[in-house]
Amino acid sequence: MPRTYGTYFDRNYLIKGLALISSLIRHETAPFTLYVVCLDEITRVILDRLNIANVITVPLHRIEQGDEQLAIARGNRSLVEYYWTMTPTIIVHLLDKVPQGDVLTYLDADLFFYSSPEPIFSELAGHSILIHEHRFTPSLQWMDIHGIYNVGLLCFRNDGRARVVLDWWRKRCNEWCYARIEDSKFGDQLYLNDWTERFEGVHVLKHIGAGVAPWNHEQYHYSLDATGRPCVDGLPIVFYHFHALSVVAPEIIVPAKHINYPMREEVLRLCVAPYVDSLSLMITIVRDILPEYSFGITDLGDLKHEHTFVAIKEAHEMLRQLGFAHQTFELENGWECYISEQTTYPFRNSLS
After folding, report:
1. pTM listed for this prediction
2. Vertex 25, ends 331 and 236: CA angle to 5°?
3. Which of 47, 174, 192, 194 could in theory staple to 69 by disulfide, Cβ–Cβ 3.0 to 4.6 A?
4. Looking at the DSSP assignment, which residues form a beta bridge with residue 235?
């Protein structure tokens, strides 16, 4: 059965969005369509120029047209808060394109797939909505004030039960969706906390390989299976959520700019290395269309000595001159990893 995915991003997430698309194309074995809601025209024009198979662009105005509640929200919250506000509205819009009974899977733009998403859909069978937990490590358990569940990947079947959930969520986000904790609310995310009690047909994903992220990766054991796929606790990593990853330059990338997110050598080798390869390729592809493209790329001023980061080998001397005297180890394809105290224990050079 063909599958339908949806995501949205602007120019600042275009590089990450393209990496997501490439990983989905590589690992999704079923026929699929991915709708990308383009939050600005630069994003839409570049995606249309690339003309990627399976990808359909949707201009922002098509989502906003005639929606008075969105117009009001846009006037009383920040741009990022407005983007969060739109999440359920975008999902509703895209679900209308899905046949009755079929599923729309929403993806954040900073996800990256490492194996087939099939385990997600296997768990969804018999349910209308699928959500997944943050699964915070004990040291980061305090972060559940921002929500038990993460909005990075959500599945909605085109049926009555899912429509009830989406209608409720959309109304709540239109009313209140801000980047602060207030009255048990935070952005679009804390609204999910009671869905399993409030609504019927909601399933919480059990597969821990779907939703590996900087807030939970420290607690897992990593390995490679017989085919070379990365695994956590013996299960294939389906996708990693690269929240807080920062591209400070095309050749220098900070996997987690928030210092409270600990890094692990296994994560750097198995998850980060393939992702930075993809990001680097996507920067090259976009600059073939628009040579001066620099959106989503910050500057070296955002690189701190406390960060563990990766850089191409050619940047080594320049970084030394800037005072980054970190211990390093080699990754694949010409990248080096610079180890700081953000890495939680001395790195090891083997994976079981």
Report:
1. 0.96
2. 60
3. 174
4. 232
Helix/strand/coil (H/E/C) assignment for every residue in the chain: CCEEEEEEECHHHHHHHHHHHHHHHHHCCCCEEEEEEECCHHHHHHHHHHCCCCEEEEEHHHHHCCCHHHHHHHCCCCHHHHHHHHHHHHHHHHHCCCCCCCEEEEECCCEEECCCCHHHHHHHCCCCEEEEECCCCHHHHHHHHHCCEEEEEEEEECCHHHHHHHHHHHHHHHHCCCCCCECCECCCCHHHHHHHHHCCCEEECCCCCEEECCCCHHHCCEEECCCCCEEECCEECCEEECCCCEEEECCEEECCCCCCCCECHHHHHHHHHHHHHHHHHHHHHHHHHCCCCCCCECCHHHCCCCCCEEEEHHHHHHHHHCCCCCEEEECCCCEEEEECCCECCCCCCCCC
Amino acid, single-letter form, for residue 246: S
Residue 349: per-residue pLDDT: 42
Mean pLDDT by 10 residues, the chain (352 residues): 96 98 98 98 98 97 96 96 98 97 98 98 98 96 97 98 98 98 96 98 98 96 94 97 96 96 95 97 98 94 95 95 94 95 62 46
What's the CA gap between 237 and 144, in Å, rounded? 23
Which residue ranges make up each domain of the chain? 3-210, 244-352
**Which listed CATH number (1.10.1200.10, 3.40.640.10, 3.30.1330.130, 3.90.550.10) goes with 3-210?**
3.90.550.10
